[in-house]
Amino acid sequence: MAFKGPADIAKAAIASGQTKCNTTWTKLLVLAFLAGAYIAFGALLSEIVAGGLSNGTITLADGSINKLAIPSGLVKFAAGAVFPVGLMLVVIGGSELLTGNMMFAPMALFDKKTGLKGLTINWTLVFIGNFIGAVFVAFFLAYMTGLFNAMPWASWAVSVAGGKVGLTWEQAFFRGIGCNWLVCLAVWLAVSADDIISKIMACWFPIMAFVTIGFEHSVANMFFIPLGIFAANDAGIAATLTAAKVTIPASLLGAGGWVNFIWNNLIPVTLGNIVGAAVFVAMAYWWIYIRSPVCVTPAQPADAAKIAPK
After folding, report:
1. CA 177, 275, 102: angle at the middle one, nearest 5?
2. Phi-psi region of 94 (alpha: psi -120 to 50; beta: other; left: phi over 0)
3. CA 296, CA 254: separation in Å to the nearest integer?
4. HSE-up (13 A, CA, CB side) for residue 96
5. Alpha-carbon span 167 to 169, nearest angstrom
6. Pick from 114, 276, 78, 246: which is nearest to 186 by CA?
7. Which residues of 48-78 are buried (b: 16+ CB within 10 A; e: fewer)?
8. CA 310 – CA 304 distance, rounded (Å)
9. Burial level of 1, CB count in 10 A (0-12/13-18/19+)?
């Protein structure tokens, strides 16, 4: 076959998890920085596309300008349709993404190819690297470039961030489960593919689905929410929002914005992402395909030889 079957995917995931848990810490941090930046690129593209559609205008032939009235479902789909470029860069380009490692490392742990120490070190270093990479893109390539100084992108950035920190712990946790269940299925399908186009398609559908649905991804939120905080606390952008009669969420202002980001979103979403990956993908597929045989061949009757015709 031109692709791996589920049992072979499970074996490849275990081998990958073993490698990841034994990667040197310096290379792990750099690879994690790259993955955080790659996911942030997808998130940035998603903000530009969806933000532009959310309150865009169209100039008619007579020169008149009309506001676009696009159904919110299509705006969400547009955001989901372009976001997968981030995971494509991670999977094909090669880097270390926390949400994917929440599947790979447990697979290796369940199969005793690594220990709890290796898993903990991997997750910790990758979390740090992903955070630095995502915030780097949010600050230098989104905020400092002025891409979100004007409407409707300024409004979109703060509304997305405000909505995320406004979730209850339960909402953020369960949205985190749904997100990483789909993200790790995307990675799982990509592992099965042996060619680039198939890997791209494997990444696109599940990632498009989780973004369009509205689930929560911890690494993507390391971009979305800091960008909203940077915009909300910028005097010039705040003036633009006020002039457009857009209310800036109080949850994003000052040092409290960072506290709300970490406590209200990053912690519960990360915990949900762990459950979605480690339980619903890693544990399920390890138990099905590795722990014991999927099928048991029926034993032949003891007297089969006696009654068989000669």
Report:
1. 105
2. left
3. 62
4. 30
5. 6
6. 276
7. bbbbbbbbeeeeeeeeeeeeeeeeeeebbeb
8. 12
9. exposed
Of all helices (H) and strands (E), which one includes residue 280?
A: none
Lowest mean pLDDT among 20-34, 55-69, 128-142: 55-69
Q: Is 165 in contact with 262 (CB distance < 8 Å)?
A: no
Token pair for 136: 């780097």
Average pLDDT in the chain: 93
Which helix (DSSP H) or strand (DSSP E) does residue 158 occupy?
Answer: helix 153-165
User: Which sign does the torsion angle of CA 281, 75, 83, 200 carry?
Assistant: positive
Rounded CA separation 136/259 (Å)? 19
Cα gap 87→183, rounded to integer Å? 9
Two tokens at 132? 């630095």
Which tens digits make up the pLDDT trace of 162-185? Answer: 999 999 999 999 999 999 999 999
User: Does residue 65 register a pLDDT over 70?
Assistant: no
Report yes or no: 97 and 1 within 8 Å, Cβ to Cβ. no
